[in-house]
């Protein structure tokens, strides 16, 4: 099934802005200072990380191939009183100037990239002592509400199968949420591992909010809007019958890897 995030752009904008404060705080503790630094945020989506970088004083450019996600990002920027530059281009060919950026950041997107081409592009746009920071996050709780939700989605998927997103589907072993082969690839392309770490955080959802969050998942982006809404209505109906009107506190994991550009 094809993945088209443009179809779920509104859900993404409304329900995927759960970037915990601990992200920036944890980077600061590790000596990462974005003040007045030039940052290319690849796969910037609806701009959740780009806005956080802007607040930290970075000069940030969001690079995003989906025009629909960029439109949502700009609406959110406007509501927050922020003005951020976005490029409607892909990570593999950003069209950004060579050797300009102090940092390249990626949040919840590395598994969608052609990694070989993206690494070559990152090396092209990074300044001499630049850093690559790759981040991911997602729900990790084993609560029944998640199992119920995934079971309903699975019943509607081709072949009744739910596969991990993007390139993660080919991976069998992970370190801090990242496929082990990625670490080898980063090293082979001239990026030395400084640190990889993780932490947990919680997000609270009403039944409606949880369905909104689920509606942004890549598994549902391949369905038409009508079909997607039917699946979400089925989930919402089940939640109401099974749990009533309660708040669901869902544990999430956040995974961060910091890499230094190496020199020969």
Furnish the topology, listing elements before pairings.
Layout: H1 9-15, H2 22-29, E1 38-42, H3 48-55, E2 59-63, H4 67-80, E3 85-87, E4 101-107, H5 115-125, E5 126-139, H6 144-156, E6 174-175, E7 178-179, H7 180-188, E8 191-205, H8 207-214, H9 225-243, E9 248-261
Parallel strand pairs: 1-2, 1-4, 2-3, 4-5
Antiparallel strand pairs: 5-9, 6-7, 8-9
Helix pairs in contact: 1-4, 1-8, 6-9, 8-9
Molecular shape: globular
Computed Rg: 19 Å
Strand content: 25-35%
Number of helices: 9
Q: What's the story with the biggest beta sheet?
A: 7 strands, mixed
Low-confidence stretches: none
The number of strands is 9
Structural class, from helix and strand content?
A: alpha/beta
Mean pLDDT over the full residue set: 90
**What is the N-to-C succession of helices and strands?**
HHEHEHEEHEHEEHEHHE
Query: End-to-end distance, in Å?
Result: 42 Å
> Could you estimate the helical fraction of the residues in percent?
25-40%
- Order of strands, main sheet, comes to 3-2-1-4-5-9-8
């Amino acid at each position: 099934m094809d993945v088209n995030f443009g179809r779920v752009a509104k859900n993404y904008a409304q329900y995927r802005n759960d970037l915990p404060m601990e992200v920036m705080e944890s980077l600061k503790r590790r000596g990462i200072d974005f003040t007045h630094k030039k940052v290319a945020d690849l796969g910037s989506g609806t701009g959740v990380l780009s806005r956080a970088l802007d607040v930290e004083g970075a000069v940030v450019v969001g690079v995003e191939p989906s025009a629909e996600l960029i439109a949502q990002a700009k609406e959110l920027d406007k509501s927050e009183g922020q003005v951020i530059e976005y490029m409607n281009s892909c990570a593999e060919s950003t069209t950004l100037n060579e050797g300009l950026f102090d940092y390249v950041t990626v949040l919840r997107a590395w598994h969608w990239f052609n990694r070989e081409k993206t690494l070559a592009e990152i090396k092209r746009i990074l300044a001499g002592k630049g850093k690559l920071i790759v981040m991911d996050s997602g729900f990790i709780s084993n609560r029944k509400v998640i199992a119920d939700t995934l079971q309903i989605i699975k019943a509607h998927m081709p072949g009744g199968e739910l596969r991990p997103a993007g390139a993660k589907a080919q991976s069998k072993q992970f370190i801090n949420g990242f496929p082990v082969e990625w670490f080898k690839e980063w090293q082979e392309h001239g990026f030395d591992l400084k640190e990889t770490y993780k932490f947990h955080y919680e997000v609270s959802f009403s039944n409606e909010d949880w369905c909104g969050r689920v509606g942004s998942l890549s598994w549902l982006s391949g369905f038409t809007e009508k079909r997607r809404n039917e699946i979400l209505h089925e989930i919402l109906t089940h939640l109401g019958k099974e749990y009533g009107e309660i708040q669901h506190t869902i544990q999430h994991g956040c995974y961060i890897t910091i890499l230094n550009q190496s020199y020969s």
